Amino acid sequence: MSYARVLCVGLVGVTGHVVEVEADLSPGLPAVVLTGLPDTALHEARDRVRAAMVNSGQVWPNRRITVNLLPAMLPKHGSAFDLAIACALLAGAGELPLAPMEGVAVLGELGLDGTVRPVRGVLPMVAAAADAGIERVIVPVGNAREAAVVPGVTVGAVDSLHRLVAFIKGQGPLMDPPAARAAPPSSGPDLADVAGQELGRHGLEVAAAGGHHLAMIGPPGAGKTMLAERLPSILPPLDDTSALEVTALQSIAGVLAADAELVRRPPFQAPHHSASLAALVGGGSGLARPGAISLAHRGVLFLDEAPEFAYLTLQALRQPLESGRVVLARSRGSTEYPAQVQMVIAANPCPCANPAGDQYCQCSAIARRRYLGKLSGPLMDRIDIQIRLQPLGVAQLMTTETPAESSAEVAARVSRARDAAAARWSAHGWRLNAEVPGPQLRRAPWRLPPKDTKALRAGLERGSLSARGFDRILRLAWSIADLDGRDRPTGSDVDEAAQLRMGEASDRQAGR
Ligand SMILES: [Zn+2]
Q1: What pLDDT is stored for residue 314 in this prediction?
Q2: Which residues line ion ligand 1, judged by CB < 5 Å?
Q3: Contact predicate 367/351, CB 8 Å
Q4: CA of 476 to the centre of ligand 1 (A)
């Protein structure tokens, strides 16, 4: 036989596609031709596969070799095709009986010495194989645990080409995936650690309930980072679909632990303000890496000291925040990653990072306004909750008469509130209050009685409240009502919501 076919999987964004690797060996001048839109890494595959085969004690067939990857139109990136190419070549040369490989997908990069190396994105590749009806996959031993996360697929692991060849010839077994981690992963920081800071805790809870973006302005030591880090702990755990998406993105980014389980806790990403654009939104050659905003998909993206981020970096977040996905332009087509995040922004009130009115602060009112002004516009436009945090006195931190509520207690209220919102909006295609367009809330049957919005309408007429700000307060009022188990917001819910928008009010006062 001079023709053989082995199955593999390619990735486009987070979606895997089954790829057929064909090898044809014909008489003629020894040469290797790769077809089917291969990128640079695939051309390098030729050299890796040759060295790996020779160093595994196989004979490199001195014939005219054509390797074709189907479907041809599918862009193919990365080194995961190596092992399948080697198998197809050996089978095409008549060295391997391919019957045991019928309906089996093979993934893995080859080292020059014939070892099989882990590749990025195995989880979504195996998931795609399973969707295509493939029941068995062979993966690098370093990826076997994440492959085993996918239900309905038998995972065999290999550490070398030699082992795979022995298995196909019936001379030895594959390796088993390592056992799942016995202890559950740590649940992360808990709200019980945050003493005092009532406004911050409340803002966080309302943000979690309604899916609202949150901005916290306050001096260093006000607990902004502590609060932000604890937002995932009060969000509902990821459902099966979300968990698979989030774990797949970590797999593609190459940040999934070797003993990985399906990620159930909403992720938390806190890129530094000096982070590159690629680190933030994604990029890189070959199989593009998802950036922080995609690694925060279905979780929290925290921008600490947000005014310190480069203007262009903040601008680059606009489109993903709007559409919930990142599109990375590539030389061949584009790669798309999901990016549905809840954003938390923290900022010091002034560039010197001393408390306002502090004796060391020399910043003028103009300098302060300009500093926070860097955040205004398109980014702040999307943020429903803007709260000003006061520094915590040492006394307040140390003397807590009643212990602070734990994340579990708050999460239970958040979960009930989200259920109520989903029940109300699901017929319209929304899940969270933050997703509801403003005009909808001003119309029957959702319009609130005039007496409850009197102060807001007065603010509108005075010009101290914008139409957008009005809609935000309505959205927040619904989240507050959901948290307290009311069918509709009351006047006091609206007042409370207005307080969570004090960031805007204080800005306006400062601007006078
Ligand atoms: Zn200052």
Answers
A1: 87
A2: 350, 352, 361, 363
A3: yes
A4: 31
